[in-house]
Amino acid sequence: MPDLDDMKWFKENFHTEVEQAIAGTPFTLDLLVALACQETGHIWSVLRRKPQLTLDRILALCVGDTIDFNPATGKGRKAFPKNKAALLAVPRGDAMFDIARKALVDMAQFIPGFPVSNPNKFCHGYGMFQLDLQFFKEDPDYFLEKRYEKFSETLGRCIGELTSKAKKIGLFNKPSLSDMELMAVAIAYNTGNFIPSKGPMQGFFDGEKFYGQHIFEFIRMAHTVPVPGGSPILPPPPPDGAIVPPPTPVGATGPLLVVDTQLSPLRVRSAPKISSPPTANVIAELPDGHPVRAITGTPVKKFIEIETSLSGAHIRGFASADFLVAAPAAVTEIPVVRVMREAPASGIVEVFMPRRPGLITKRTDIAGAHSLNEPDRPSRKGDTPAELTAGLNEIIDYLASDKPSHKRYKPRQGLTFCNIYAHDYCFLTGVYLPRVWWTQGAIERLSRGETVEPLIESTITEMRANGLFHWLRDFGPRFGWRQTSTPTKLQQEANIGAVGLIVARRKEEGRPGHIVAVVPETNDARAVRNASGEVTKPLQSQAGAANFRRSTSTLNWWKGNQFADSAFWLHA
Fold it and tell me: What percent of the chain has pLDDT over 90?
């Protein structure tokens, strides 16, 4: 698997040529980095460390794919040439086989695992971006003259294919593409098409992940690698943290307004109408006094289209004109929350339930206020999305909320423990979500710089789901949390190793709210997407009235009539 140093090498050698070639297209340098990593990174990342190999020789050895059609199973290669006989059957196929066979033998001197002992095996993919031999029929000279050995040639063919596929799936004419849209183009490059409802789970499957998943991970990694003399698109993540982009700033330039309800939060809707049921098209709820930017300022059916940022979530939608007024002179912009990369070391700091020496808190124990400290507990470690998501999945299976012997999460006497499961999940990932938190009096003392001893029901108190809703809003950003606006974005970040939560606050005082983790998709457990590719049911993990490790749960459960408000939270 290519790493950040490999991406640095690619950018040092090829960024100028790539940037010139993609001018006037919506493609990016980091998309080409990702494609090179996915297609032949397992080859050039090894070859570049061989001091005897020149850059030209490395490029010449970027060949691969020896899978033939297997008539016994009906599986394997479907495109031309299915095997040696199919290649030999076309004009100049014998010359191409000689080249293809030698390419395999030469490359396999440095890269183990290829079937060189079988004299009928040969390479089907050529160049750093792997133009497939199926194109031999229409352009045999490209292969016979070994043009693929030149970076400009393999790059040109790659961009031509990307352009064709981007046009096919309706993305070429956009001025710029998001990371997910770039992934879609790459999937079409690999398969010939892109099906939005499948999200990243499409393209070649290597037994662990799909082509789309790998491409998205590589794009994000490449964002942290600068070109020589430049700055990266994204800063490197914190240790053992995910590569999560900063909150999106507000781009609207219309009139500045503020919410004026004097009663309850203002609902922002996806369309200028009240849906049936009323919460169906609600995409956010803004607190009283919150500033927004109008897109035009002209009402549409008594609604104004607005844009704002809410605890890091980028919100664009329609709000009732009756509850928006001109902003006071002191309000000059929409602030975007600043998320702290490190937890505070003084003032209002993390707190945990004190523990007597030798006390072990186990999953098999009845739930209490202590955090887990079993010696075999897993964690989230690594500096790649693959390592981080592997850690998250190990944590989910370790907690095993659905396991009957794990009494910590098992409902009993009308009580459920979503808050404890969410805390345990975050705790093992290295992210702070309180199981206990400071009382108001303790917070005032800490704010004055005093030292406060954690004492249950004196200076600290247990946190329920409703309390966690308020804690995330009031304290989350100083501990690395920020909101995001949609389940699609939340699932997207969880898929590369970030920690995601959905939390809903109960309307009725004293009744429990709910909190769940949004977790990485696997081949066996996936989010539900609509025909446009938007996540309608993220993949979740929870304890509650029903306990499960991975499920898509009920559609829009957080919009239920029992809840007053809800939010999607994200932590790198």
Answer: 99
- The residue with tokens 């059609």 is 69
DSSP for 185-217?
HHHHHHHS---GGGTTS-S-B-SS-BHHHHHHH
| DSSP for residue 184 | H
**Separation CA 486–CA 268 (nearest Å):** 13
CB atoms within 10 A of CB 508: 9
- Nearest Cα neighbor of 131 from 92, 152, 158, 107 is 158
Question: Hunting for tokens 């949390």 — which residue is that?
Answer: 481
The residue written with tokens 């009308």 in the block is: 414
| Residue 7: C-alpha distances to residues 48, 58, 528 (Å) | 12, 15, 33
Measured torsion, CA atoms of residues 467, 277, 570, 338, in degrees rounded to the nearest 10: -80
Among residues 139, 59, 38, the alpha carbon closest in space to that of 106 is found at 59
φ/ψ of 479, rounded to 5, equals: -115, 20
Respond yes or no on whether the N-terminal peptide bond of residue 328 is cis (omega within 30° of 0).
no
- pLDDT tens-place string over residues 178-211: 999 999 999 999 999 999 999 999 999 999 999 9
Nearest 10 degrees: CA dihedral of 451, 455, 456, 458?
-70
Eight-class DSSP state of 477: G
Q: What is the DSSP letter of 371?
A: P
Q: How far is CA 169 from CA 159, 184, 193, 238, in A?
A: 15, 8, 7, 36
Listed residue (443, 437, 445, 446) closest to 467, CA to CA = 437
pTM here is 0.95
CATH placement of domain 256-326: 2.30.30
Distance CA 526, CA 524 (A): 7
Cis bond upstream, residue 277 (ω within 30): yes
Q: Is 415 exposed, middle or buried (0-12, 13-18, 19+ CB in 10 A)?
A: exposed
Instruction: Look at residue 523 and give its three-state secondary structure.
Output: coil
Per-residue pLDDT tens for 458-468?
999 999 999 99
Please write the tens of the pLDDT for every residue from 445-454.
Answer: 999 999 999 9
- Three-state SS string over 143-183 comes to HHCCHHHCHHHHHHHHHHHHHHHHHHCCCCCCCCCCHHHHH
CATH number (3.40.1350, 3.90.1720, 3.10.20, 3.30.70) of 385-571 reads 3.90.1720
In the chain, what are the domain boundaries?
4-223, 256-326, 385-571
pLDDT on residue 509: 87
φ, ψ of residue 118 in degrees (nearest 5): -90, 110
Q: What is the DSSP letter of 527?
A: -
527-560 residues labelled b (16+ CB within 10 A) or e (exposed): bbbeeebbbebbbbbbbbeebbbbbbbeeebbee
DSSP helix, strand, coil percent of the chain (3-state; round to 5): 35, 15, 50
Q: Which residues pair with 268 in a beta bridge?
A: 284
- Residue 73 has what pLDDT? 93
pLDDT in tens, 395-449: 999 999 999 999 999 999 999 999 999 999 999 999 999 999 999 999 999 999 9
